[in-house]
């Protein structure tokens, strides 16, 4: 991970110290891809044995990210006699669960739409369940001895322009209306007491958030699941899911319940190309900052940090005192293509670096040690869902957009309850009646409309953000609102 502060800039084009080109370890020591910094930090795992021939189970789970692993965990805890098999194409945590920004927080994609569809109270129940989920993950990590670098400092979202401040106030009021009575609104001075983001004019803080080391969490969870007696097969891609069957090149696993937990990779499954759009998110991480640098930044509370830009950023102060910062980058690849082990375009790295030094000008020149990307799943209506089709035994959970670290846990407990209800082991629960259970939505449009729609959305966001930054007094952009409507986001 180490590298000297380098003057050469071979790929990024602007001022990212060290320079970055695509293709692994590069000049100045900046690592690009390699799945994620979190794996560079904690080590890539030894792979578990692949499937070796046909098999049977009571429940087969496709995908070994947070959703699949939490589902296996809660099902096995509830019914230890169940034979549960998890099939993972690479290794557990290969996807977004091993690459994310480590915001374990109470956001859930689609809540406002669920309020419109099912009423405000139903959405309040979903929100309360999400608030509790943050504590549930912290509790289970502790109970299972998973040291995931968890620090519960809440989430701080800052506004840096008048238009962002207007959105922040609306956002804050909306969150209060969903029962978040413990959320606080700060002016510029109070914000600066927590963190010195240049130009910050206000912030909204919620206690319902924690910083985690994503890979330590997913590795610990996989180990806990295995210790419970769940069978995990890695290096085992599922090529087709159909009722009672998960088909792989090495054999088929037959089970009454087949649960799809493949999030941003779902499009690669037969018949699912237009189900959830694989959206990219990209991150950089700095070298560890010195105490003197931290004095210029503040951030003693180690809150998860975000902003109110249309193309928003997210960041955490890591356990070893780096800044890990993410944003959208290249939003989507034509034809729902997904991934290249996290390899990230140099323009995206430059863009993220520019955000970093715009937020913290005193860090100009700070070294970037690693850059990576991952995919998240976006349904056509941008609403996360948990569904079990009782006629086929096929289930799925996901479509979390960018908010899946905590949501996957709530989704997994909901899937557990739906399976238990369907198999007669339990009745309906508070979770099975949450408004996202059983929600269905139409597919995305064929190409090139998908590509045009998503790239148009982010072009509109960037233009709106630029306008808001450069024209003091600019109102929240109409263009961004229109783009939201066209792409189904709001
Ligand atoms: C860069 C980035 C930053 C993010 N930051 C945050 C954040 O800070 N906070 C937050 O709440 N959310 C964040 N997210 C989103 C969050 O990480 C995800 O929503 C969450 O991890 C989803 O978990 P999952 O298990 O559903 O999906 P994944 O973690 O993607 O797991 C799916 C698994 O299924 C496997 N798989 C896929 N297809 C097949 C197949 N056909 N056969 C077998 N296995 C298969 C994959 O290899 C993968 O391991 C971020 C996402 C990214 C990419």
TrEMBL record:
GO terms for cellular component: cytoplasm. Residues 58-418 form the FAD dependent oxidoreductase domain. This is FAD-dependent oxidoreductase. It holds the Pfam family DAO. Residues 481-490 have a biased composition (Basic and acidic residues). InterPro entries: FAD-dep_OxRdtase, FAD/NAD-bd_sf. Residues 469-490 are annotated as: Disordered. It comes from Streptomyces spongiae.
